[in-house]
Amino acid sequence: MRPDLLVFYGSEQNFALAYLAARHPVLQRYIDSGRTYTLPSRLSLCPVLAAVEVLQQLMDKRKTFATTQ
């Protein structure tokens, strides 16, 4: 895992969430590719919303990548 590629704003809870997300093999590919993901501080109190935000960013980037190929 390369936590230096993750940029998270908010609480340590968000960082823990990022760490767990990075352990997932599908998410790992995106993290290793050098992309960074940010979270608004308003999500720091809700790890579920934070997880949704991260996954949405991943899906948006995946769609963009797929359409540019």
Q: Provide the low-confidence segments as ranges.
A: 1-9
Mean pLDDT over the full residue set: 57
Rg from alpha-carbon coordinates: 12 Å
Distance between the termini: 27 Å
Strand content: under 5%
Main beta-sheet strand count, sense and barrel state: none
Helix percent reads 55-70%
In total, the number of strands is 0
Number of helices: 3
Structural class: mainly alpha
Shape: flat
Overview of the molecule:
With 69 residues, this protein is mainly alpha-helical. The protein is built from three helices and no strands. Helix 1 packs across helix 3. The N terminus is likely disordered. It comes from Microbulbifer okhotskensis. This is Fe/B12 periplasmic-binding domain-containing protein.
Give descriptors for this structure.
69 residues, single chain, mainly alpha
Secondary structure blueprint with pairings:
Elements: H1 12-22, H2 25-32, H3 47-67
Protein name: Fe/B12 periplasmic-binding domain-containing protein
Organism: Microbulbifer okhotskensis
Quick take:
With 69 residues, the protein is mostly helical. The protein is 58% helix and 0% strand.
